[in-house]
Amino acid sequence: MKIAIANDHAAVSEKNAVAKTLEELGHQVLNFGTDTLDSTDYPDYAAKVGQAVNQGHADLGILLCGTGIGMSIAANKIKGIRAALCHSEETAEKSREHNDANVLCCGARVLDLSVIQAIVKKFISSEFSGGRHQRRVQKMMAFEADL
Ligand code: RB5
Predict the structure, then answer these.
(1) Which CATH number fits the domain that encloses residue 96?
(2) Number of domains in the chain
(3) Is the separation of the CB atoms in 40 and 66 below 8 Å?
(4) Which residues are catalytic, by number?
(5) Helices 12-24 and 113-125 meet at what angle, rounded to 10?
(6) Does 43 sit in the ligand 1 pocket, CB within 6 Å?
(7) Which residue lies with its CA nearest to atom 4 of ligand 1?
(8) Looking at ligand 1, which atom is closest to the CA of residue 70?
(9) 130: number of Cβ within 10 Å
(10) CB 3.0 to 4.6 Å from 85: which of 22, 65, 105, 119, for a disulfide?
């Protein structure tokens, strides 16, 4: 898969570690930064990954910031994005199966790297279940038309 990834200054080393893992698993990683510890604004990075996913340049997106909260709020403002803030393998799996989440958000200051890595692996290996969940996802996405 092609996976777009980005982060703010709170998650540079975690992003690098996740990107390395994804490449080792055979995925193509599109890194949208930031790659320095200089203070940055997470919405700028959420927009880059959200647009890459929405425009079909990436199959899935991953966003890391301090808590994951800012990235998830921002990414969910981007057309076509269903960003899930996950804190466990179970929430990551359900976000794909039930919500067809296309962007994963995690907090680098609130989760151990090993947990983030496990969440990422679960997210990218889980699939949307469809069925009754399809109707619910369609209802959510219809909200975009009212904006
Ligand atoms: C940056 O200090 C921090 O606010 C950001 O990484 C994130 O936690 C926002 O939700």
Answers:
(1) 3.40.1400.10
(2) 1
(3) no
(4) 65, 98
(5) 40
(6) no
(7) 66
(8) 10
(9) 11
(10) 105
Q: Residue 43: give the domain boundaries.
A: 2-146
| CA atoms of 73 and 64, how far apart (whole Å) | 12
φ, ψ of residue 61 in degrees (nearest 5): -125, 155
Nearest residue (CA) to ligand 1, atom 6: 66
Checking 97-100 for CB contacts under 8 A at 24+ apart, the result is: 97/126, 97/127, 97/128, 97/129, 97/133, 98/129, 98/133, 98/136, 99/133, 99/137, 100/128, 100/133, 100/137
Tens-of-pLDDT digits for all 147 residues of the chain? 999 999 999 999 999 999 999 999 999 999 999 999 999 999 999 999 999 999 999 999 999 999 999 999 999 999 999 999 999 999 999 999 999 999 999 999 999 999 999 999 999 999 999 999 999 999 999 999 865
DSSP letters of 64-123?
EESSSHHHHHHHTTSTT--EEE-SSHHHHHHHHHTT---EEEEETTTS-HHHHHHHHHHH
- What is the rounded CA–CA span in Å between residue 11 and residue 78? 21
Q: How are beta strands 103-107 and 60-65 bridged, if at all?
A: parallel
